[in-house]
UniProtKB/TrEMBL annotation:
Gene3D superfamilies the record matches: Leucine Aminopeptidase, subunit E, domain 1 (3.40.220.10), Zn peptidases (3.40.630.10)
Keyword Protease: yes
Pfam families for this protein: Peptidase_M17
Family recorded in the similarity comment: Belongs to the peptidase M17 family.
CDD domains: Peptidase_M17
Alphabetical UniProt keywords: Aminopeptidase, Hydrolase, Manganese, Protease
Molecular functions (GO terms): aminopeptidase activity
Protein name (record): Leucyl aminopeptidase family protein
Domain Cytosol aminopeptidase residues, every copy: 163-464
Organism: Algoriphagus aestuariicola
Residues annotated as transmembrane: none
Length: 473
């Protein structure tokens, strides 16, 4: 995609895109330099659009409503190429409204680039390619070029998160994620360490290794470190990286086809790390992705086994389908013990209970730090990645008491599943005073207007970026 900012002679052969606020519809005729379409055809309402030919030029009007939020603008602009790609074959000219804020302009440009994404990776008939697409941006923003560069980096990170979730599990394996991290380190200012089974054993990552025992695919414990010379804060991220989840010997009885998405937390963490590096944010970041495949064979871990952990706690395995919390336990423990982290945030497609509570609207948020919890909520709200807090009361921890071990991985009861899972994780944070857990089971892989099947959403990338940048203000 080739961007040109404020061309002196806009191309008449390009598709001209004009976003319109509902309360600014009266000024559309002046913008066009000719009569506007009748209100019955286009009113500027949210999610409306009208495309027509004007003296040989195609014009696409996008209705944004009266007070559009970030997600509304991003989605409206994503539709341009995702749904009208053939109209843009000659190029696209985008008129950003004069009263657009920098944040609104970012949302528009990010959404526009996201429109190039398609999940048809293995189709014989390929989707429209946009690599060489010429795009004119007409804007009064003083730093329009900076905005475009930033938006491209944000969109690239989100698309990478889409890909990592949407590609099939015979492609996205623990080894693939490890190689992905190594490639990122080569092209960015990052260092990467990957533990294989032997190294993980020597590090005491026994819970992590137990989950991967039933798979022929080697588990990988991935560590990415980004350091900035002017950093005043050190953030730690942990992402659940189960590349496919059969449920283990407690095999899933439904929904297994979608379990390639069980590494949505890993995708968000890896893509965020890429983005922080691309934007060269003045922060230190350590990201850990414990990556395994939870499969079934003669070596698979058993219900009722007692396994060890990096934290030194023994764990009674009640359910092998409660595997994500086991690998996260070792990831959190390793991070808290080995690094001096100011704040720890983990993201995981962890429980159906979170979906039962919030549906597909928002993530379940748990934190022992009110400031961190509020900051994540506000950051997510600003970019359309909502979360809502649930309690971490000590009384819930009793549900995870084991008769035979220090703790059990599942309480076996049909209530408070997301909360008891969070309490399990908290036991492995070594009492870190500022920790947050985002259960993203309902928001990282969902139905949308951009595909006929569930697809990745990149939930967490925008939220974490906004949170980190607000911390730096």
């Amino acid at each position: 995609m080739q961007f040109k900012i404020n061309p002196k002679s806009p191309s008449k052969t390009f598709l001209r895109v004009i976003p319109v606020f509902e309360d600014a519809i009266a000024g559309l005729a002046e913008k066009l330099g000719k009569p506007a379409p009748a209100p019955v055809l286009f009113s500027g309402k949210k999610d409306s659009a009208y495309c027509y030919d004007s003296e040989g030029q195609l014009i696409l009007l996008l209705g944004l409503g009266q007070n559009p939020d970030y997600k509304t603008i991003e989605t409206a602009f994503r539709r341009i190429l995702s749904k009208n790609g053939t109209l843009a074959e000659n190029g696209v000219s985008i008129d950003l409204p004069d009263n657009f804020t920098a944040t609104q302009a970012e949302a528009a440009l990010v959404g526009f680039v996201l429109g190039t994404y398609s999940i048809g990776f293995y189709k014989s008939a390929k989707a429209t390619e946009f690599d060489g697409l010429k795009v004119e941006i007409r804007s009064v923003q003083e730093k329009a070029k900076v905005l475009v560069d930033r938006a491209e980096k944000i969109a690239a990170a989100k698309i990478e998160a889409f890909r990592l979730v949407d590609l099939p599990p015979n492609k996205i394996t623990p080894e693939y994620l490890a190689d992905w991290a190594k490639k990122l380190a080569k092209k960015s200012k990052l260092s990467t360490t990957v533990f294989d089974s032997k190294r993980a054993k020597s590090e005491g990552l026994e819970a992590f290794l137990a989950v991967g025992r039933g798979s022929s695919k080697e588990p990988k414990f991935i560590i990415l470190e980004y350091r900035h010379p002017k950093a005043k804060h050190h953030i730690g991220l942990v992402g659940k990286g189960v590349t496919f989840d059969t449920g283990g010997l407690n095999v899933k009885t439904q929904g297994m086809h979608e379990m390639k998405s069980d590494m949505g937390g890993a995708a968000a963490v890896l893509a965020t790390t890429q983005l922080v590096s691309d934007l060269q944010l003045a922060i230190n970041l350590t990201a850990i992705v414990p990556s395994v495949e939870n499969a079934i064979d003669k070596d698979a871990y058993l219900p009722s086994e007692v396994i060890g952990s990096h934290a030194g706690l023994s764990i009674e395995v009640v359910d092998t389908d409660a595997e994500g919390r086991l690998i996260l336990a070792d990831g959190l423990s390793y991070l808290a013990k080995k690094y001096k982290i100011d704040q720890v945030i983990d993201l995981a497609t962890l429980t159906g209970s979170a979906i039962g509570t919030f549906g597909y609207e928002c993530a379940a948020l748990f934190s022992n730090d009110e400031s961190l919890s509020h900051g994540l909520q506000e950051a997510g709200k600003a970019v359309g990645e909502k979360s809502w807090p649930l309690p971490l009361w000590d009384s819930y921890a009793k549900e995870m008491d084991s008769e035979i071990a220090d703790i059990k991985n599942y309480n076996g009861k049909p209530f408070a599943g997301a909360i008891t899972a969070a309490k399990f994780l908290q036991a492995f944070t070594h009492g870190h005073p500022s920790w947050a857990h985002l259960d993203i089971a309902g928001v990282s892989f969902t139905d949308s207007e951009f595909a006929k099947t569930k697809t990745g959403t990149a939930y967490g990338v925008g939220l974490l970026l906004r949170y980190i940048e607000r911390m730096l203000e």
